Amino acid sequence: MAKIDLQNRISRYSINSLRDKDIDSDDLDQQLKRYKVDRYFDDSKKRKELARWACYLVSIYLFLIFLILMLNNYVFNLSDVVLSVLLGTTTLNVLGLMYIVLHVFFDTKEKIS
After folding, report:
1. For the whole prediction, is pTM greater than 0.70?
2. Does a structural domain hold residue 113?
3. Mean pLDDT across 54-71
């Protein structure tokens, strides 16, 4: 009889201790939602910084190319082939960088996290 009483006490104690340590699932859902909102705002902030960086980089790059083209006859004397390659790579660089930035902004695939 003492053995049964001891088992009842142990089982009651373990059940009560599990109830005390149980975490409410609503609380976890709220924490997850808060985390997702914080992550969204952080992502938005980083995307804006990336867009500004790309805009500045492209503007400076285009200004330097324009400067090279304007000073070509006076300072550089580059051949037509070199100028064609310079303009072609400039176009590809600008379009590629803008594609990357816009792809990040308007990515329609939902990320699993």
Report:
1. no
2. no
3. 91
